[in-house]
Amino acid sequence: MRLDDYKRFLALQASRRSLLKGAAGAGALAAFGGLGAGSAIAPAMADEASDLRTKILQIPGVGKGSPTDADWQKVGELCLGATKANIKEGEFAGVELSFMGLNNQNLHNLLFRGFLKPWEAYTGAKITWIDLAQADYTPRLQQSIATGTVDFDILEMGAPFEGDVCGKGLASEMPDWVKKQIDMDDLVNYLKPPVGTWDGKQYRVTIDGDTHNFNYRTDYFKDEALAKAWKDAGNTTEWTVPKTWQQVQAVTKFLKGKQIGGQDAYGYLDACKAWGGFGFYFLGSRASAYAKHPDDKAWLFDVDTMKPRVNNPAWVRAIQDVIDALPSEPADQLNADPNTTGFQQFLGGTGSMCAWWGDIGSNAKTNDSSVIGDKCGFDILPGSDDVYNSKKGAWEKLPSGPNYAPNLAYLGWGVYVMARVDKDEKKHKAAWSAAAHLGGKDLALWTAVYPSGFQCYRNSQGHIDEWVSAGYEKDFISNYLASQFNSYNHPNGAIEPRIPGIFQYYSLAEDILAKTFAGKLKAQEGADQIAAAWEKLTDQIGREKQIALYKASLGM
User: Fold this and answer.
1) What angle do CA 510, 516, 520 make, to 5 degrees?
2) Does the keyword Transport apply (predicted)?
3) 426 in Cβ contact with 92 (< 8 Å)
C-alpha cells in the first residue's frame, strides 16, 4: 500500500458505520455447542487486573465503531512502558529501519504504523514500510529467500516459513532481554518452542495464534420456519447447529432456495479462489477431521517417506464435498477467496457457516462492516462420523464417537528481525526493540479484542472479565474464547509442518484445486495431480532433509 493510499484509508475512517449495520437484528445468543464453553478459560482475573489493560480496552470500546489510526497510536503509546524500561529516550536517533508485512483487510501493517509511531517518537528511530497484499506476500518473500536479497530489516512472517528463512541464516537470533520483555512463558503451549526456533535458537516474537474455528449464524438454527421445512423434508434429526461435516453438507444442500428474514439463505461458504497459498488452509479445515487420525501425528505426508496423503480417500472426500456443495452456495463462489467468504459474505450477512481464523469473532461486534454481531456463534471445527486410517488404508468409526481435529492453521504471525542488522549494534537493538513492542503482553490483549488480523495467542488473553469490561456480552465471549482455546488445546490438533517450501506445496495445490472446483478435473484426478507436484517438489528440495524436518515439526 502506497503512502497516499494509506492516507486515503485514514480519511475514509471518518465515516464510521456502514449502512449494512441496519440489517443487524437483536437477540441474545442461545445455548452454545463445543467441548464445554469456557472449560479452558479463566472466569475472572480480578487479582491480576491492571489499570493499563482496563484503560486500553476502552479504546474505542466495543460497539463504538472500528478503531482508527488515532486509536492505534493511543494504544501504542500507553503500552510503551516496557520499551522505556529498556531503552533511553532518543537512543536510536538516526536509525532507519524497513519493515515488510501485510496490508490485508487494511489491518496488519496499518496497525503496526499506529502502534510504532509513539515508539518512533520516543526512541528517535524511523521506519519505512513495505506493504503487501495477502496474495502477493508469498511470492515476494520466496523471491527474497531464493535470491538471498533481503531488503528489509524487520519481517512479519508465519512460523511455516521458518524452515526457509531461519534455516538459511537470514534471521537474527533473539536477545535475552527481548525474551523477558515479551514474557514468552505466557504463550499457549502449542506456540512455545520448537515453534519460533531453529536449531535451538529463538527467532520469533509471536504476535498471533492461529487456528481455524467454526462460525455460524445462531438465527438460522433458531428459525421456526426452517425447522419445520427441515422436518417436512423427511429429516429425522433435530434442526440444530451441525457438529460434523456430514451434517454441514446436509444443511447446505437443504438451504438451497430457502429464505430467512426475506433474504436468500445459504449454508457453508467455501473459499475456492487461490490466495497465495493461504487458501489451501480452507480445504485443510474440511479435510482434517477425515484425515487426522488420533493415533497418527501426521496428516499431510507419510512421515517416513514424505509421500503425500493429499490424494488419499480422506482428502479426496474433502475435495468432493466442496464440489458437491458449490451448487448450493452463492453465485460465483468459485471466485471467492477467504477474505470474501469471511469479511464480505459472512460478516456482511450472507451464509450461515464458515471456517476462518479467529478474526470473525473479534470483528463481529467491532467492525463497521459486520451486521451479525448479535447472531453469531462459535465452535471448534466440525468432526466426522468416521476417520481415515492411513496406516491401515481404511475408514474407521471411533468408539468415542465423531473424530475432531482442529486445523491449527499457520501457527500464527510473528515478527522476525533479519540477520542483516547484526553488524550494526545500534540498528540491531532498535529492530529488536520495535519487534518487542509489537509483541508486548498488553498490546496483545488489545489486538485480540479488536480488528487487527490477529487472534488469541497468550493464556492471559483468556480472561473473560477483561473482554466483558471492553463491552462484550459474557455468553458471547465465553463461547468465542472456548472455540479458540479448545482448538489450541485439543489432543488431536492438526499441526502445521515447519518445513522448507511449505507454501510452494500449498500454492501448487491451489492452482490445481481451482481447476478441480471449476469442473475441469474429477476430485481424484485433481488430488493425484497435486500429489505428483508435491513429490516433484520434495525431490527438488531434498527428500531425506524434508523427512527429518517433517518429523521434527511433529515432535517425533
Assistant:
1) 135
2) yes
3) yes
User: Could you give the angle at the alpha carbon of 416 between the alpha carbons of 414 and 420, nearest 5°?
Assistant: 170
Distance from C-alpha of 277 to C-alpha of 511, rounded to nearest angstrom: 9
Which H or E element spans position 230? helix 224-232
Indicate the SS3 state at residue 217. Answer: strand
Residues in Cβ contact with 512 at an 8 Å cutoff, skipping those fewer than 6 apart? 521, 526, 529, 530, 533
Helix (H, G, I), strand (E, B) or coil at 249: helix
pLDDT tens, per residue, the chain with 556 residues:
444 444 444 444 443 333 333 333 333 333 333 333 333 455 444 443 479 999 999 999 998 888 999 999 999 999 999 999 999 999 999 999 999 999 987 789 999 999 999 999 999 999 999 999 988 998 999 899 888 889 999 999 999 999 889 988 999 999 999 999 999 999 999 899 989 999 899 999 999 999 999 999 999 999 999 999 999 999 999 999 999 999 999 999 999 999 999 999 999 999 999 999 999 999 999 999 999 999 999 999 999 999 999 999 999 999 999 999 999 999 999 999 999 999 999 999 999 999 999 999 989 999 999 999 999 999 999 999 999 999 999 999 999 999 999 999 998 999 999 999 999 999 999 999 999 999 999 999 999 999 998 999 999 999 999 999 999 999 999 999 999 999 999 999 999 888 989 999 999 999 999 999 999 999 999 999 999 999 999 999 999 999 999 998 887 8
The two counts, helices (H) then strands (E), for the chain are 21, 14
Closest CA to 373 of 349, 398, 406: 349
**In this structure, how many other beta carbons lie within 10 angstroms of the beta carbon of residue 129?**
21
Are 78 and 52 spatial neighbours (Cβ–Cβ below 8 Å)?
Answer: yes
From the list 311, 232, 263, the residue with the least C-alpha distance to 516 is: 311
How far, in Å, CA of 439 to CA of 446, rounded?
A: 11
Separation of CA 175 from chain center = 27
Residue pair 471/61 in contact (Cβ under 8 Å)? The answer is yes
d(CA 269, CA 73): 35
Cα-based distances in Å from 437 to 123, 205, 444 = 12, 10, 10
Nearest Cα to 283, choosing from 378, 376, 212, 361? Answer: 212
Cβ(517)–Cβ(272) under 8 Å? yes
Long-range pairs of 517-520 with CB within 8 A, sequence gap ≥ 24? 517/272, 517/322, 517/323, 517/326, 517/334, 518/334, 519/323
DSSP string, 309-356: -TTSHHHHHHHHHHHHHGGGSPTTGGG--HHIIIIIIITTT--SEEEE
- Total-model pTM: 0.87
CA–CA separation, 472 vs 466, rounded Å? 9
Separation between Cα atoms, residue 445 and residue 468, nearest integer Å: 13
